[in-house]
Specification:
The chain is an all-alpha fold. The protein is built from 6 helices and no strands. The longest helix is centred in the last third of the chain and has 27 residues.
Length: about 170
């Protein structure tokens, strides 16, 4: 999604568009990397690009699928081991994580489309609204996209603006 989000039609569209824009920024950060590079931790932090994508997808799934829709998520909700969100599991690949994140985005889109009122409480916490969940996901995804910018630049000098531009062009053509 380009630097500036498209015009939106209403609050729901605006929240989902903003979330998609942050997701795209995070996914663009791994453009052109190998699995090994995506799991590298080149800075003082243990964070990796693939770990950030895995965590962001799993967190979004928890908040929306379990929290908003009230559907069971065995192994993801309730959280059994928080650190697993950031670790490479046997058989995981960057391509698989990106596919999982795209699937999660589709689920979010579908579930939020079915919500009658963004002010309604989530199924997990009557004090938390669907609107709050979307705002929280935008904030957290943007935060992790910022982490990803720094990690990627540390890895190979690539900057978010060029990566995002190339990612957007790929998405538009295919």
């Amino acid at each position: 999604m380009p630097l500036f989000a498209r015009q939106v039609t209403d609050e729901r569209d605006g929240l989902l568009t903003s979330l998609a824009q942050q997701r795209d920024s995070l996914m663009a950060s791994v453009r052109g990397l190998t699995d090994e590079q995506a799991w590298a931790a080149p800075a003082a932090s243990e964070l990796t690009l693939a770990g950030l994508i895995k965590h962001s997808a799993r967190a979004e799934r928890r908040w929306v699928v379990a929290g908003v829709a009230g559907r069971p998520l065995p192994g993801l909700w309730p959280i059994e081991n928080w650190e697993d969100d950031f670790r490479l599991a046997a058989g995981e690949t960057l391509a698989g994580l990106l596919s999982y994140y795209a699937e999660t985005a589709g689920q979010t889109q579908q579930i939020i489309a079915e919500v009658a009122d963004l002010g309604q409480p989530t199924s997990e916490d009557p004090g938390t609204s669907v609107r709050w969940v979307l705002l929280h996901l935008i904030k957290e995804t943007a935060r992790h996209a910022g982490h990803a910018d720094i990690i990627r630049e540390t890895l190979d000098g690539q900057h978010a603006d060029r990566l995002t531009e190339a990612y957007d062009a790929e998405q538009a053509s295919g």
